[in-house]
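2024-03-11 09:14:02 DEBUG pipeline.ingest accepted 1 chain
2024-03-11 09:14:02 DEBUG pipeline.ingest length=399
2024-03-11 09:14:03 DEBUG pipeline.predict start
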Amino acid sequence: MTKRSYLTGLECSYCGQSADPEQLNTTCTKCGKVIFARYDLEAAGKAMTKESLAGRVNSMWRYREVMPILADEHIVSLGEGMTAVLPTPRLGASVGLNNLYIKDEGLNPTGSFKSRGMSAAISKAKELGVTTVAIPSAGNAAVAVAAYCSRAGMSSTVFMPADAPIVAKGQSKLAGADVYLVNGLIGDAGKIVRENREKNSWWDISTLKEPYRAEGKKTMGYELAEQFGWTLPDVVIYPTGGGTGIVGMWKAFDEMEAMGWIDSKRPRMVSVQASGCAPIVRAFERGDEFAEPIAGAQTIAAGLRVPGAIGDYLILNAIRQSGGMAVAVDDAEIVQAMNDIGRHEGICACLEGAATFAGLRRLAEGGRVKPDESVLLFNTGSALTTPEALETEFDIWTE
């Protein structure tokens, strides 16, 4: 019988210490850093060829051999992944580019890219016998964890800043989560989860504080390679809060090279943050290995309001190894970009996704992206997840 997952173990991404994949793991017990799932990539590459993908399920689970779930019956799916890559010629022309694309993660089942990570994490939690999870969230992750826990028959508890998007609060409740609002930022919500998880028997699936959300996010990298005919774009621009998307894609590129699917060429990875909360940008500009948390973080884009990220060193490593960069943009630029994307291409981008075009505009104006380079923006969610951002004045027709 064909082996479905070629998972071999868990390994700290910083110090290399091993962890037991049959146990529930958080961060490295030696250094406290992020743990990665590892695979027998030589064997996986023989079992799963590029050619074999054509007849597979049209979701992120098409890459089954490099996903950490051992038994198919534990997979918790709502059809996430394989989102469209859309050419955006009018938007590109507005900044002097000939080959601009958007990968629209707003088409995922819960309205954002968070569907990917939660599908993988909740599937593995189910396989390991977890019955209840908890998470701090700026909004979209709460919606996703509520939905996938409901699908799995598990219970969920979410903690969000009180000013999180109203849709996130309502959708989380609708999917059966216990929802608590916190007077503070996502870090304050995370503190509540940490302090109460043991007595409440919660499994904490905070960003990169367990090994499996990154495995769902990495499938964005696999899809990019497949959708671009196994030649990656020259530049990938990603909105960065916790940074799991960049971290996951960078891991995917390494895995695909090991399986012989792609060569060593990598896109320049660009991290875009809001100027009111830009710890990665500051660390990149200073040349620091880690990013000092931001005090008093503020931005209209809730998903970018992450003062400190546990995977900071992984994000910075991907940016630097790829010859990429980190860019901060103002809230006004984000709102303008949201309107530009909609008016030029009809894509309903969330604020975080719109930030990528605001960042691209700066890069293009500074000559740091060339007119004929292929550039991919990630729209990480639908604008419908934050209807507050759509409020505007309307023309009134009278006769």
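2024-03-11 09:14:41 DEBUG pipeline.report The chain has 13 helices and 13 strands.
2024-03-11 09:14:41 DEBUG pipeline.predict end
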